[in-house]
């Protein structure tokens, strides 16, 4: 066994016994890269990535193009690194056990995982029946850091397809803060009016930023009292 192989095996053994507790960010990233770069010094690549982006979370939030521009990374490694936050988000979503959304707190808990690692604005539509049971949750669009182009017609089509009678909208503020912008109020009012024309109620509009989440309508709103 070469010195290179021996180092990798020691790191694998350490992880198998203790997880990542004894690893700093560089070594955690180095270890992760073992599984996509079999024959190179992944410690150097890990340093390059952290030097370029500044933190582990920023590495995982970077685009494939941004990652590919780092020395030693390449497109395959960039795609692999982008897979990590996407799988993490899917994992968190799969742990959700809520089949009924009764209030703002439920809605916030439901939506938080959908925006993990998101660098740009995204918007989701949660479709409910008249008993507040979840029918489906669909991504409506993605935008720049400051803007999501909401297609009201697409929301109406989703409502018709799933025969929903209640809707909850959610989007994120990647730049931080959950204070609604003027555009947030405008888009909420526009969607509320459009849905009302079909006898469908917009129950809430949730804004998520990191671990924070809040309602445009009202904090701690009980949906059961208004349906």
TrEMBL record:
The keyword Iron-sulfur does not apply. Pfam families: HHH_2, RadC. Gene3D superfamilies: 5' to 3' exonuclease, C-terminal subdomain, Cytidine Deaminase, domain 2. Residues 100-222 form the MPN domain. GO terms for molecular function: metal ion binding; metallopeptidase activity. Transmembrane segments: none annotated. It comes from the Bacteria. GO terms for biological process: DNA repair; proteolysis. The keyword Cytoplasm does not apply. Keywords: DNA damage, DNA repair, Hydrolase, Metal-binding, Metalloprotease, Protease, Zinc. InterPro entries: DisA/LigA_HHH (IPR041663), MPN (IPR037518), RadC_JAB (IPR025657), RuvA_2-like (IPR010994), UPF0758 (IPR001405). Belongs to the UPF0758 family. This is RadC family protein. It comes from Candidatus Scatomorpha intestinigallinarum. The lineage of its organism: Bacteria, Bacillati, Bacillota, Clostridia, Eubacteriales.
């Amino acid at each position: 066994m070469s010195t290179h192989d021996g180092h990798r095996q020691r790191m694998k053994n350490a992880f198998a016994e203790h997880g990542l507790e004894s690893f700093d960010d560089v070594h955690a990233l180095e270890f992760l890269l073992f599984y996509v770069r079999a024959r190179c010094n992944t410690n150097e690549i890990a340093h390059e990535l952290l030097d370029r982006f500044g933190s582990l979370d920023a590495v995982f939030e970077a685009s494939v193009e941004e990652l590919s521009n780092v020395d030693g990374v390449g497109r395959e490694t960039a795609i692999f690194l982008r897979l990590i936050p996407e799988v993490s988000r899917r994992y968190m979503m799969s742990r959700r056990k809520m089949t009924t959304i009764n209030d703002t707190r439920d809605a916030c808990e439901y939506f938080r995982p959908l925006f993990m690692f998101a660098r740009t604005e995204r918007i989701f539509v949660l479709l409910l029946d008249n008993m507040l049971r979840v029918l489906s949750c669909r991504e409506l669009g993605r935008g720049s850091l400051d803007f999501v182009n909401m297609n009201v017609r697409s929301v109406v089509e989703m409502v018709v397809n799933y025969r929903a009678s209640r809707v909850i909208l959610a989007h994120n503020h990647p730049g931080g803060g959950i204070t609604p912008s003027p555009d947030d109020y405008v888009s909420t009012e526009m969607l509320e009016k459009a849905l009302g024309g079909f006898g469908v109620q917009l129950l809430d509009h949730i804004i998520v930023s990191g671990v924070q989440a809040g309602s445009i309508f009202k904090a701690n709103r009980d949906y059961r009292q208004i349906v």
